[in-house]
Design a protein that fits this description.
By secondary structure, the chain is of the alpha+beta class. The chain has helices spanning about 65, 90-100, 110-125, 200-215, 260-270, 285-290, 330-340, and strands at about 5-10, 30-40, 45-50, 70, 75-80, 85, 135-145, 155-165, 175-180, 220-225, 230-235, 235-245, 245-250, 275-280, 295-300, 305-315, 320, 355. It binds pyridoxal-5'-phosphate (PLP). Its cofactor is pyridoxal 5'-phosphate.
């Protein structure tokens, strides 16, 4: 057991809450935040809950130049009994440390991080929205703060957690999205940083999203960076295909982000005796299945939307319609199951939820 003391500096004049129907995603922030600094020779010091406010950094802070930045995304949900619960938060802090390792950032104490998060949410508890489908989005992140233009791992870092009440992702019902298969750009390569949750992966994915949007598609389907052949992810979500009764998702090969929603979906499928395979899947296999009528469902998974059904794929000049542009049966079941567990309306046989 580590010993640590989180100091708390509470504010006195609280901000006004945004009405639930005006909450978008990631635009409103709560009254407090968590901050902890890393100082070479001392380790992580001064864990503090303090007023949500701008931070001051040197223009030479290394994060601005060489991109040592990692982050996480998870949510807190208000249950019908008025309790606040988190969904598998231990996995997020474990993954944050995996990302740290890849970017030469010193590891954080995962237990301290989880306790700090719980304490922060307790302080800002009245910011957890209660309207159906709303939640409190949680953004832990670490940046290199040392002012230095030399290229090596920084000697100083900041670990912060900020909270943002977010609106319902599917206000107008779950509408399947149209996805463009990207032919030129790639999101990540094996040996690169694809399996780390790092800012740079997002910067390099923007071009593909922009090109997709120009053609009227809402996201990019990413193929592998070496052979441009195997399916990797959709936008910033993991991807699943249901072909001939079987659910298939790309195996974690080093360039795919190991999603916690992805892992949860696999476990739910197994518990319902629906066959699920983690393996390499060539886009050609998807195309063949579409042509012979066995491509039944396609969906992306991630914390923000939980599940995003795909209604259409465009590959070169070919347009593949999936399930007549409707959400599939298994997609709907997975959505209902996960949301039910997260909001506490369904039993949690997996032990995934943690009350504050
Ligand atoms: C965060 C992320 C996901 C989804 O991970 P979850 O833990 O399910 O939210 C998938 N792909 C990428 C590239 C991501 O950054």
């Amino acid at each position: 057991m580590t010993t640590y003391q989180i100091s708390t500096e509470l504010i006195t004049n609280k901000k006004e809450k945004t009405p639930a129907d005006q909450l978008g995603f990631g635009q409103v922030f709560t009254d407090h935040m968590f901050v902890m600094d890393y100082v070479e020779g001392q380790g992580w010091v001064n864990p503090t809950i303090t007023a949500y406010a701008p931070i001051e950094l040197s223009p030479a802070a290394m994060v601005f130049h060489y991109g040592q930045a990692v982050f996480e995304g998870l949510k807190a949900y208000l249950t019908e009994d008025g309790e606040v619960q988190l969904f598998r938060p231990d996995r997020n802090f474990k993954r944050l440390n995996d990302s740290n390792k890849r970017l030469c950032i010193p590891a954080i104490d995962e237990e301290l991080a989880l306790n700090a998060l719980k304490e922060l949410i307790r302080v800002d508890r009245d910011w957890v929205p209660s309207a159906p489908g709303t939640s409190l989005y949680i953004r832990p992140f670490i940046i290199a703060t040392e002012p230095y233009l030399g290229v090596n791992p920084a000697k100083n870092y900041k670990f912060m957690i900020i909270l943002s009440p977010v609106g319902s992702y599917y206000k107008e019902g779950i509408n399947p999205v149209k996805i463009l298969v990207e032919q030129h750009y790639v999101r990540a390569v094996v040996g690169g940083t694809g399996e780390a949750k790092t800012a740079g992966n997002y910067a390099s994915s923007l071009k593909g999203s922009e090109l997709a949007a120009q053609q009227g598609y809402s996201q990019t389907l990413w193929l592998d960076g070496k052979e441009n052949k195997y399916v990797e992810e959709v936008g910033s979500m993991n991807i699943f295909f249901k072909i001939d009764g079987k659910v298939i998702t790309p195996a974690l090969n080093g360039s795919i982000l190991p999603g916690i929603t992805r892992d949860s979906m696999i476990q739910v499928l197994k518990s319902k005796n629906i066959p699920v395979e983690e393996r390499a899947i060539a886009f050609e296999e998807v195309l063949t299945a579409a042509k012979n009528g066995t491509l039944e469902e396609v969906f992306g998974t991630g914390t923000a939307a939980v599940i995003s059904p795909v209604g259409e794929l465009k590959w070169l000049d070919e347009i593949i319609a999936i399930n007549d542009g409707q959400i599939g049966e298994v997609t709907q079941m997975l959505y209902d199951t996960l949301l039910g567990i997260q909001y506490g309306t369904l039993e949690d046989p997996f032990g995934w939820t943690i009350k504050l």
